[in-house]
Every structure is written in C-alpha cells, then in structure tokens.
Amino acid sequence: MGGSKVEAPKPSAEETELNKLNIEIIKRQMADDELLRPFVLSAMKLVETPEGGLRQMTDTEYRATLDPVELQSYENLLLQQERQTKALKGELPLTEALVQQKATEFKNFKEAMARMGNPIEGDDPGSAVGLSTSGIQALKTFNERWGLVEDAERRGELTAGQQTINQTLGVASGIGVQDWSKQVSFPQRTAGTIAGISSAMQPYQYYSGLEYQANAQNAANKAGLLSDIFGTAGTLGGMGLYKYSDPKMKKDIVKQTGKDEAKALKLVKGMKNYDYRYKGEPGSVPKRVGLMANEAPREIVTPDRKMIALDKQVGLLTMATKALANKIERRAS
After folding, report:
1. Do 127 and 110 touch, CB atoms closer than 8 A?
2. Is the C-alpha dihedral spanning 205, 206, 211, 213 positive or negative?
3. Could you give the CA distance from residue 289 to residue 273 in angstroms, rounded to a whole number?
4. 265: number of Cβ within 10 Å
5. Residue 23: exposed, middle, or buried by beta-carbon count in 10 A (0-12, 13-18, 19+)?
6. DSSP class of 279
7. Which end of the chain has the least Cβ crowding within 10 Å, N or C?
C-alpha cells in the first residue's frame, strides 16, 4: 500500500574519507598550477596583460629573465644570427688568413706575368688591369678562381654557422624539443585537475540521484495514499488537495440553484464505480475504488478524458448531496 517513506542510502565512512582526500589532491594541484604559471609563461617568452590576455615578451623583458650564463649564450646566439645574415647577403668579410693568402698569390702572379712580358698594374685584384691581351685573360682567370675560393669560404661559414645556431637553440641536444613540448602541453595543463574534479563530483552526483529518486518515490507514495482515500484514478493531475476559496479572490460568482443541484444528482446517479489496480502493481496491493475517466461526466474530466479534476468532482458530489437531502426533507414533511 502507498504511503511508506523511502530513505536515500548514505555514503560509507570509507567513501567519505576517499572523497575528502580526492578534494585535497585537487586543491594542491590547483595551487601548484598557480605557482608554476609564471615560470611556464616565462619559458615560453609570454607575459600576462592587464586585461588577462597573453603577449610575447619584448627583448628587454626576456633578457631580464635570464641568469648570467643564459644571457651570455643568448648574446652569442644573436651575434651568430647576425653573422649568418651577412653571409647570406655576401657581406661577411673573409678571414684574415684568406685575405693574406690572396694578397701573397696576387703579388707572385704579378711578378710572374711581368717576367713573361705581360705586366699587370695595380695592387688589388679587383682594381688591377692587364696591359696586354694575355695579361687581361690571366687576370680574369685569377679573379674567377679566387671568387670560387671566397664563395666556398662563405658557404662553409653558412653551414658551420647554422650548426652553431641549431646547437645553441637546443635542437641538436633536445632542449628545443623540450621547449616545444612545454608550449604544446601548456593549454592542457589543467586536464588532470579537471579529471580529478569530475572524479570527486561523481559521489555527490550519485547520492544526489538517489535522493532525487527517494523524493520522487515518496511523492508517488503520497499520491497513491491520497488516491486511495478519494478513490480517484491514482493521480492528482497537478491539482493538489487545497484550493484558494476566499471570495475576495474570485469573480463571476453565481449561486447554484435547485435545478443545478438536481442535475448534479442525476449525473452522480449515472456514475459507475469500479475496483481496480494499476498496471505494474502486484496482486498483494489492495484494490482501489474509483471512476473510469472515459465514462465519467464531462463536467469533471480533463479535455483528453484521461484524468478527473478532483475539485470539480467534490463540487459535483456536494451539489448532489444537497439535492438528495432536500428530497428527504420534502418526503419527511
């Protein structure tokens, strides 16, 4: 029979302790994240803006984050990059050894050409001129050969310089890969915390669900009990047991007449009562007593003829009772 109260089960002491421990871990993770945030941003050369956003550090700001050894390494990197740029543009000076070697070879070249009767005038291969056809051709060949030598030195500088830059940046040693990993993982740094929060919330959600189910069952039991009392279809249809009846809250008030009461009595006489159980109820549940909505007077049912309006049914019964009482009084007199 309806009306019994259902209690939601309470979490065990072990479950409560485990949940507290989980929450403490989450709090520590969040505190650690907050402490590490400035260091992670600094490693990524980022700073927070007053508006709460992020921007790239200026060179001055980045230098301020470096210790003396790191600062020296950074300075060397900038110098190497500048040298590399000049080498690419062909503006990088040749090494002193190569300059001396070229000057010595040019001096010997001039002396050899003079002995052969093809003098060369000028102290620099770039501005020197040959005084004969053979001298002009020989000077051109000399400059072409040294052009290749100088180009080879610059290419060697480019190759060696790039390797130096790569090593400084940490690509060869793996430091660059580690820095890249920091940047990739930074947006997901709170994933573990969020997962922990979700895990910690599961017990609350579980017991909240049980409590909701218990409350729903209690409401159903209460509805079933009231249904037994009033012999209705087992549901209140949202109407409730109490209705405001203060005349100050009403309008269009019309007093029922004897004719209305007689009609009510006729309707009540035509109503059929049944014993029944709802589908899904076991045979041990006592049968209910009430009307079938599809057979009840249209004055007391909902438009779809699925539910009975209790306040209208009570009003109808009141009018019918009054009409019956009047009949008895008339006969008695």
Report:
1. no
2. positive
3. 7
4. 20
5. middle
6. T
7. C
46-48 vs 54-56, strand pairing mode = antiparallel
Q: Label residue 139 exposed, middle or buried (CB < 10 Å: 0-12, 13-18, 19+).
A: buried
Among 192, 264, 202, smallest CA distance to 15 is for 202
Q: At what angle do helices 133-169 and 96-115 cross, to 10 degrees?
A: 170
Closest CA to 258 of 332, 333, 325: 325
- Out of 12-21, 78-87, 204-213, 263-272, the most confident range is 263-272
CA–CA gap between residue 46 and residue 42 (Å, rounded): 6
Query: CA nearest 264: which of 315, 322, 186, 319?
Result: 319
Report helix angle 175-185 to 13-43, nearest 10: 130
What residue type is assigned to position 176 of the chain?
G
Do 262 and 323 contact (CB within 8 A), yes or no? yes
Query: How far apart are alpha carbons 49 and 229 in whole angstroms?
Result: 69
Whole-model pTM? 0.34
pLDDT tens per residue across span 291-333: 998 999 988 888 888 888 888 888 888 888 888 888 888 888 7
Torsion of CA 303, 304, 308, 310, to 10 degrees: -40
Question: At residue 325, what is the residue type?
Answer: A
- Residue 274 CA from chain centroid, whole number: 57
